Hints:
Blueprint: H1 11-35, H2 43-65, H3 69-92
Helix pairs in contact: 1-2, 2-3
Amino acid sequence: MLTGSPMLTRRWVKTxxxxxxxxxxxxxxxxxxxxxxxxxxxxxxxxxxxALVAYIVLGxxxxxxxxxxxxxxxxxxxxxxxxxxxxxxxxxxxxxxFVAS
Length: 101
């Protein structure tokens, strides 16, 4: 992605991120329905689902839709930060895990 690898032209490399994103979103929504913990009722779950959508959008910008290398690099770093946020929210069940409570 950032180095212009010829591997990026392979079909499976172009398809796999979409499959992973779809699986993440479907599993998140499936777990929400299965556990009866709906976004809106539980602030931490709302934050986690919204962060997942942001992660997918940032990943798309980083991998494909970023018009410049600089923007792709920024989107990559932002996606990694959002991923860390998702993990911390999942562990603490707090929508503001980096703020002392």
